[in-house]
Amino acid sequence: xxxxxxxRSTETQSRIIQALIRLAQIKKLExxxxxxxxxxxDVSIGSFYHHxxxxxxxxxxxxxxxxxxxxxxxPINDLPPLAAAKEVLMHQTSFIVKEAxxxxxxYYKNILSDPNHSAANPQRKYYRAVLHCTRRAADAGLLKDxxxxxxxxxxxxxxxxxxxxxxxxxxxNYDVVQRTSRELDLIIGAVSN
Length: 193
Known about the structure:
Helix content: 55-70%
CATH class of the largest domain: Mainly Alpha
CATH architecture of the largest domain: Orthogonal Bundle
Oligomer: single chain
Number of helices: 9
Strand content: under 5%
CATH topology of the largest domain: Tetracycline Repressor, domain 2
Number of domains: 2
């Protein structure tokens, strides 16, 4: 595929994803049809199915795009390792609040039905970035005995996911970024020397 075609394909995917995010601000996910998404994105239904096999796949991909935003906060190696891990985790939390809005509630309702569990894939850039930070912390002797970097990375990611789910359960009625940041400091303090 030529660079020009690849750019157009990526641009079309992005328009479709952004259309879903906009529609989720005004409708429940189950009320949003592929036709609605295509109309909002100004693409054909055939184009939609060229890029996504289903609305579920689109939903999964809408949150994988977060990983591309990690390039905006790199290089995290310039920060102390656990502060860098917190930066990655807080970047995700802020992204969800600013970009995903009500779609995140629908996403978490549907995530368990994804047979591939792509959001929880440890090969995602997000997971690898947090693991990279916790490995740096272990190499620097910053983790307490008994806390290996893989466990700490999974704990931090699981904690942030739980914060976001709690925020959704409370109809997004509190400052999840501020609360998650403060509580992450407690967890990081518990696992570090």
